[in-house]
Write a structure and sequence with these properties.
Elements: E1 3-8, H1 9-19, H2 34-50, E2 54-58, H3 66-70, H4 83-98, E3 103-104, H5 111-123, E4 129-133, E5 147-151, E6 160-162, H6 167-171, H7 177-186, H8 201-211, H9 214-219, H10 226-234, H11 236-246, H12 258-261, H13 268-278, H14 281-288, H15 300-307, H16 315-318, E7 321-324, H17 328-340, E8 343-350, E9 360-366, E10 371-376, H18 382-390, E11 394-397, H19 400-409, E12 418-420, H20 421-428, H21 436-444, H22 457-464, H23 483-510, H24 514-534, E13 536-538, H25 540-565, H26 574-584, H27 603-608, H28 614-633, E14 640-641, E15 646-647, E16 650-652, E17 662-664, H29 676-680, E18 685-686, E19 692-698, H30 701-710, H31 713-720, H32 725-734, H33 743-757, H34 762-769, H35 773-786, H36 788-804, E20 806-808, E21 814-816, H37 825-861, E22 867-872, E23 875-880, H38 885-897, E24 910-915, H39 918-921
Parallel strand pairs: 1-2, 1-4, 2-3, 4-5, 7-10, 8-11, 11-12
Antiparallel strand pairs: 5-6, 8-9, 9-10, 13-15, 13-18, 14-15, 16-17, 19-23, 19-24, 20-21, 22-23
Helix pairs in contact: 1-2, 1-4, 2-4, 4-13, 7-8, 7-11, 19-24, 20-23, 21-23, 24-37, 25-28, 30-36, 30-37, 32-33, 32-35, 34-35, 35-36, 37-38
Length: about 900
């Protein structure tokens, strides 16, 4: 039987591009290959599994269609096609031609119409089965006993075939033609088809079932009631037009014959050329056989990562050897083997994500691909496991920080060296996903067991209602899973991680990131484990007092704002606030509005209005006070660990693409320090009994790094002479003696100094300083005249990044910037600013990480009682034993100031302070 597959090319490439919009696939040249790869993947799945006899791919053209002539607003709401997607479409067509698959397009008609026309013709032929390959559900209007929709699955799921039997399930009607009636009533927001206002899918279904068709609804509108009757009668013509717009045309003047659509052998050389150009190595092996090798254009690692891998294998296909160590003999065999190994992978299974509540169920091990062990935990195994974990073997895992925290909580300190596959991938590809399942599927072509498939039905609902998730969201309380199934699941995790390790060892080297990983990220991870488990003490009484003062101030501000407004209103309602500011107080003639027509009242808008009326500054203060209270004062006590009475944040090494540390649960990095109210929050963090808090903070580290990277002698000299850099800058920019610099001039210079790093514009500087834009532009111009090397550094960085595709920190950490070649000025400008900032901020991040590693080693080696607790940007916080201050403090500041010497001899300065709380110490 002839099997005809008609692919909606435009819909499929859109789907593939936007499915990976947050983490696009790129080859070693930085080209976004998401759309091409996704389309090719779907095409190969059809060719391999569906065995079509006839095939074609339809595309839209840029020419207007009859729908645009009838309704000029048709699809008018759609944003312009992203340039990377537009660039991919010619390559998708090249690929089709390389496979000898006809590209079907005709001016004046959409891909839907071409597919509809061919599908209807096929129905008139004897024995044809037609499959419309598209994610667009509107194609359901064309299904028939011989015409089906073939909808690609989402996120790796299986595709679904939709025939007449499933129409009622999806649409609530039984006949395909009634789907057009539904669309006429309810419209289609995707294509900007209006329908009748207020008629949604459920109402449309009910009306069509009741009256049989759109025309039936309109003819019997007298049977409707109230506003529904009014809307239907008032929009009858629009409904008829909407139905017309939603109807797929089935008489397009196509010249293609059936012979043109017959499946032929591909042009192997042309396919190879395309796969080589876009570095689709796994797809090449899939098409031409596992021994196929493409020429290496660009780095091997980038090519493999840029492509991803087809999901073709699972545990049933590979048939690995996994052993459950459930007897003394097997346990001794496993433990003996581990003690002799130079490296092994491990992964723990627990009852909870909470590091302090988690009970250890077992540990999985692997040291060879497709092999693994699972050891159920028993206290009798403690001595042998302690010996294994304290040995010098390389310990490998994925998201190892969690495992190490739980083991430390169970008195299993694990000694390095360590290799975390999640961190390794994040070092190489900071903008991509790093979950183990995702990496396994995209890089190994292997889909691991899903926990949901193992949970017994009677406990599944309760189990998955828990918020605790680990490792790609799949690791919940597994105590209810049968031991044999758990053993296979856990051993597979260890096995997959081992395979990723074997690959990433090579990839790190190919990407020239081995040094960053081995000298910074891998040794930092156990340091963060110790800091997280140490935690910091919090004075809940002090926090409550701060909260009381904030609440009092919030009430005062609310009262004052109501007085300014002339009446009380809901301060937390942007709509009501907008009406007060712009309709009643009329603060500006042309207020900005959102897309929905509501007045803008966001912080940036309010800051721009500052000074026009006292109400603005009070609203800004009110917002800050309410945010401080809800985010910190009210929330922080919920993060106290009952068993330790301390706060234990989670540190994240590589969430930020620049390499800066972040923290969550709670986020202690974002406590505001510019306002007095924000700084007060720090008063609630106090030392443990018998200690004081020590704060060590790099002074103006990013400015020093910028001066060093730019080799600006004027700025370097100011640092060497330990001048106030902002006063020195103001003197040069305004052409006055340093002794004559005013407070406003220093403030302006400070804003420019730090703003330059983040690409501040004249408009931004003007807003922050409250001065005219022309004056701000003049300040920036004078700045670059006085510090020409800074401008040269910025220009040079952008040019080199555009040429190489990435920028590097002093330590060698890389970040890619494909958007530097964008023709969209806004996108390109954002990439340029980030490219300038990354070497500066990234170098500062690398520096403090190196310092933390060395300070931790110092404290452990010399057995100090003092402990490192927190890292907040350029600051380290310690519980300091007073009798250790004289010896330990100089060592800490010395290690920080020598962690990474800067070019040009730029000196580093660490400021420090001690006190009974964080605010006093800082």
């Amino acid at each position: 039987m002839p099997r005809l597959y008609l692919l909606d090319g435009m819909a499929l490439v859109y789907r593939a591009h936007f499915a990976l919009i947050r983490n696009p696939i790129r080859n070693s040249k930085g080209i976004n290959t998401s759309a091409l790869y996704g389309f090719t993947n779907t095409l190969l799945t059809i060719l391999e599994n569906e065995k079509p006899t006839h095939i074609g791919v339809a595309f839209d053209t840029s020419a207007p269609t009859p729908r645009h002539e009838k309704f000029p607003a048709y699809k008018a709401q759609r944003e312009e096609m992203p340039e990377e997607l537009a660039a991919a479409i010619p390559n998708v067509k090249r690929l089709c031609r390389a496979f000898h698959i006809p590209v079907l397009e005709i001016d004046g008609y959409e891909a839907d119409d071409i597919i509809g026309t061919i599908a209807r013709r096929a129905e008139q032929e004897e024995g044809y089965e037609t499959y419309m390959v598209t994610p667009d559900k509107d194609f359901a209007q064309l299904v028939s006993p011989t015409t089906f929709m073939w909808r690609p699955g989402k996120q790796g799921a299986e595709h679904e075939v939709i025939g007449p039997g499933r129409l009622h399930e999806i649409w609530g009607v039984d006949q395909p033609e009634k789907i057009i009636d539904l669309l006429g009533l309810m419209g289609d927001s995707v294509d900007n088809i209006p329908g009748i206002p207020g008629i949604g899918p459920k109402t449309a279904q009910k009306l069509i079932v009741q009256f049989g068709s759109l025309e039936g609804v309109l003819e019997n509108s007298d049977q409707l009631k109230g506003k529904q009757k009014e809307k239907v009668e008032a929009n009858a013509e629009m409904a008829r037009l909407s139905k017309d717009l939603a109807t797929i045309i089935t008489d397009v003047p196509l010249e293609s014959a059936w012979e043109d659509l017959e499946l032929n052998e591909p042009d192997a050389d042309a396919v190879r050329e395309l796969f080589n150009e876009f570095e689709f190595r796994t797809l090449a092996k899939r098409v031409f056989g596992k021994d196929e090798e493409l020429s290496k254009t660009g780095s091997d690692a980038a090519g493999d990562e840029g492509e991803g891998a087809e999901l073709i294998r699972s545990l049933a296909d590979v048939k690995p050897t996994y052993t459950l160590a459930d007897t003394p003999e097997k346990q001794q065999r496993l433990l003996g083997e581990l003690k002799s190994l130079k490296r092994f992978c491990f992964d723990i299974e627990t009852t909870s994500l909470d590091r302090f509540e988690a009970r250890l169920l077992g540990i999985a091990f692997s040291w060879k691909a497709h092999e693994g062990w699972y050891l159920p935990y028993d206290e009798s195994l403690r001595p042998a496991l302690l010996e294994v974990f304290s040995g010098r073997a390389h310990k490998i895992g994925h998201n190892l920080k969690y495992d190490l925290c739980v083991l430390l909580r169970h008195d299993f300190p694990v000694e390095g060296p360590f290799f975390d596959t999640m961190l390794a991938h994040a070092v190489m590809h900071p903008g991509m996903k790093h979950g183990m399942d995702h990496l396994s599927e995209t890089l190994l072509g292997y889909r691991p067991i899903k926990l949901a498939d193992l949970v017994p039905e009677e406990v599944e609902e309760d189990l998955f209602s828990q918020a605790a998730k680990k490792k790609d969201g799949k690791h919940l309380d597994v105590s209810s899973i049968p031991l044999e199934a758990l053993a296979e699941y856990a051993a597979e995790d260890a096995d997959v991680t081992w395979q990723l390790y074997e690959r990433f060892v090579r990839d790190l080297d190919a990407a020239d990131q081995t040094g960053v990983f081995e000298s910074i990220e891998a040794p930092l991870m156990p340091v963060l484990v110790r800091m997280e488990m140490e935690g910091i003490r919090m004075d809940t009484g002090a926090l409550a007092a701060i909260g009381g003062k904030l609440q009092q101030r919030i009430e005062e501000l609310a009262s004052g704002i109501a007085t300014h407004a002339g009446r009380p209103f809901n301060l937390n309602s942007p709509k009501q606030l907008g009406e007060i500011l712009f309709d009643e107080l009329k603060l500006t003639e042309k207020p900005k509005k959102t897309r929905t027509g509501q007045y803008k009242t966001d912080e940036q808008t309010l800051v721009s209005l500052s000074g026009l009326h006292p109400i603005i500054d009070e609203i800004l203060e009110y917002r800050e006070a309410t945010k401080l209270k809800s985010t910190y004062v009210d929330a922080l006590p919920n993060h106290l660990q009952p068993s330790t009475k301390r706060v234990h944040t989670h540190f994240h090494q590589l969430v930020a693409a620049t390499g800066r540390l972040a923290s969550t649960d709670p986020n202690l990095q974002n406590i505001p320090v510019r306002s007095a109210s924000g700084r007060e929050i720090r008063r609630a963090f106090v030392p443990r009994e018998g200690c004081v808090l020590l704060s060590c903070d790099y002074s103006q580290i990013e400015l020093r790094v910028m001066a060093a990277l730019a080799r600006d002698e004027s700025m370097i000299e100011a640092f060497r002479k330990q001048k106030d850099i902002h006063t020195a800058t103001a003197a040069r920019v305004w052409g006055v003696a340093e002794s004559g610099v005013s407070a406003d001039q220093r403030r302006g210079a400070k804003m420019v100094n730090f703003g330059i790093i983040y690409g501040i514009s004249a408009f931004g500087l003007a807003q922050r300083l409250g001065i005219p834009r022309g004056e701000a532009a003049e300040i920036i111009e004078n700045y670059f005249k006085q510090y020409p090397a800074i401008r040269e550094f910025m220009d040079r960085t952008i040019e080199e990044a555009r040429d190489k595709g990435y920028v590097s920190t002093l330590a060698g950490r890389r970040r890619e910037f494909p958007d530097l070649k964008s023709s969209n000025q806004t996108i390109r400008g954002n990439a340029e600013r980030a490219a300038i900032n990354t070497p500066i901020q990234g170098t500062a991040a690398d520096m403090i990480k190196l310092a933390m590693i060395r300070i931790d080693d110092l404290i452990r080696t010399k057995k100090y009682r003092s402990r490192m607790l927190l890292q907040v940007h350029d600051e380290l916080i310690f519980d300091l034993a007073p009798d250790e201050e004289a010896t330990l403090l100089p060592e800490i500041t010395g290690l920080m100031e020598t962690a990474m010497p800067l070019p040009g001899g730029v000196p580093l300065l660490v400021e420090h302070g001690t006190g009974p709380d964080w605010l006093a110490a800082h």
